[in-house]
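Recap slide: Transglutaminase family protein, sequence and predicted structure.
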Amino acid sequence: MRLTISHTTEYRYDEPAQFSLQRLRLTPLTGPGQTVLDWKLTVEGAHPEVEYEDQFANRVTLVSLDGQQEATRIVAAGEIETQDLNGVVGPHSGFSPLWLFLRETPRTKAGKLAKELVRGLSGDNELGKMHALMSAIHQTVEYKPGSSDTETTAEQALEKKSGVCQDHAHIFIAGARALRIPARYVSGYLLMEGTAEQTATHAWAEVHIPGLGWVGFDPANDVCPDARYVRIATGLCYRDAAPVSGMRLGTPGESLSVKVTVASQEQSQSQS
């Protein structure tokens, strides 16, 4: 499947910002299940400083804002050819050792509710238990935009029984690590049925299964990622894979708008 993607992030400041540094994890890489045919990242209102691969092998662009800027506009766009590999990404690679993905973070710490969820899982092996965990989260935690934020923990989302894809991923990771299965957070794009326009990127999780390597699970939709998914960045939790993160000097108020469009070649042709 060939996917056309456009992702625009715009910050507007109440007064000119003094200085900021931002890490942009907005560049997908060619790998299992996806081939980058064309991709361009443009930034208005900030200066590119350096591009590098971080400890999780994500492509990161560091940009700075220094001066009297009242807005920053970031546009990532291109075409990706995808394949359905039933969620299998394959052997571990990168700079971080596999054992690191057993480490808890504040967002993925398994509390009482997460441990109870894991204890009730069925399945004859690790893969079966991960499928059961995905379905259990999908049935337990309602997808409800606005019910959480980027600091919400897995346990808090389980208490509320609501959240967004980020929360579903954090709960899945917490449960997998409680079973001593390496797990990581994935940010990316998803082709939605019936609409091309979205207000955010997507998130899911991957676990490392002996004999298969990394395998993806999307509890928000109760499926393993297929040709509709594009991976951008991975990490221990949202913090490591956020599309945009950084620091700023001064405290001007800001407004944020995000627009994501993901369309298949067939959709693009039918709309033209």
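The domain at 2-271 is CATH 3.10.620.30 (C8orf32 fold).
Helices lie at 112-119, 126-140, 154-160, 165-178, 238-241, 265-271.
(End of recap.)
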